[in-house]
Amino acid sequence: MRRMPRAALWLPVLTLxxxxxxxxxxxxxxxxxxxxxxxxxxxxxDALHGEALTxxxxxxxxxxxxxxxxxxxxxxxxxPSYTTLQLAAFRAKLRPSPVMxxxxxxxxxxxxxxxxxxxxxxxxxxxxxxxPALSAKGQQFYNMGAVERNVxxxxxxxxxxxxxxxxxxxxxxxxxxPKYTLEVLHEFKSVPDYHIAYPNAMHIVTAQMxxxxxxxxxxxxxxxxxxDMDKASK
Length: 234
Prior knowledge:
Helix content: 40-55%
Mean pLDDT: 85
Radius of gyration: 18 Å
CATH architecture of the largest domain: Orthogonal Bundle
Number of strands: 0
């Protein structure tokens, strides 16, 4: 039996309150919407308190969110609104992961906001090693897309530096391990159309990408900014 991609299990629920979860500046204006499992109501983010909560995170995600494990994402430098949304989804058991569900279940709304703030203030981890020539091909696709197939360039949403957009809940996607990055891209490629802006955009793009293009973009994203990659692109 083919295992359903994990993204296919949790992406549909993001339509419930993607905006409400990320906009912490509006949290003081009233109670969270009734029945919304992803809604967050908290005070101003406290990064120092968030740091104090990271003891149980470091085993997988590393000190300051710099993961050294190929199957675990780095959290350092991630946009706060995206981290907030993921923790809320884990806590509501709408995103699968027994470990993360158990950890998130112990977090209050304020804890989630504070953790997201702490990781958002950290310097992103350094690049992973990747084939320079393959990275250069990925850089071209990232910046140009595939015009002849109407495939949008990644830079349009994720920016020149790949660091996403906090206001739009667009994730930072650089310097994750090649293994983790490729797995996530495959998940977006395989999910159906849910009529939800962000996952739909990712699905539309990745569904049209070849395996060679996915591998090249993965190499570029994981090694972006490395000296070897920069030399290969010149």
